[in-house]
Sequence to fold (282 residues):
Amino acid sequence: MRVNEKGVLEESEYYFFTPSNLAKSLFFHLICTGKFFCDHNYYVERDKYNSYLLMYIVKGQGTICYNDKLYTAKENDLVIINCYNPHRYYTNTGWATMWLHYDGNTSRELFDLIYDRFGCVIPLNNCPIIPKYLNMILEDARKCSPISEPLMSCYIQRMLSELLMLSYDFILQKPAKFDPVLEAIAFIEANFKEKLNLKVIASNVNLSPFHFARTFKKDTGYSPYEYVVKIRLNHAKMLLKKTNLQVKEIAVECGFSAESNFLVNFHNNVGVTPREFRNTPF
Fold:
């Protein structure tokens, strides 16, 4: 479909889709997709557009304005925006982009996770997965035949999952200089059997409890307390399967203050009691 928008050049294309009620209730669903070649006049500003945007910069660069922050997006970067909030993006030099607007399923939750870790612009480096799936979606759109909504949902989920993995890899590959989050993780894993609380962990990395808690949550997706519980429960599962220790003994061995506290945390996180977990075959 030809595009009649300021700054969008003639060879550009876009396609619209109307999701079924089933897709709206169960899937990630595609709203529109396209490939734009733009000159320096291209400028988009919206108060609200009911969707989420993935935009891959094929060539050139531009500026993204979101949540009172400015980002530069250049070749091989991916832009992700919650378009339910005010936003704008533009290029002063021209760019080529592949993009799609989507919604549904856990779009908000996944966006928040990705945005908290990376912001709106994510360098893809040598990762070919997202451009590949954007191309596949465009190719399906060009056929002008009914698209498979479950398949399209899989494509979108695969791209969002790749972004989560990229953000996790980014955390693990930070420079060798002192990193309070990595130091805290090492401290927790070495001392999970001890009495740990926010103040103790933050003190170990020389940060205030408030600043540490925010930084840890942003980088890992867990609060410090949630991470401590996760490590303790993982160890408890190993002991339940590999030893004959009583549940009370395992609770103590894993750093829980009381057997009742262990039982509540185990059931809330695993969905069964420790005894049920021990007696359930893999």
Q: What stands out?
A: Residues 180-279 form a domain with the Arc Repressor Mutant, subunit A fold (CATH 1.10.10.60). Residues 170-175 have pLDDT under 50 and may be disordered. The two ends are 53 Å apart (CA to CA).
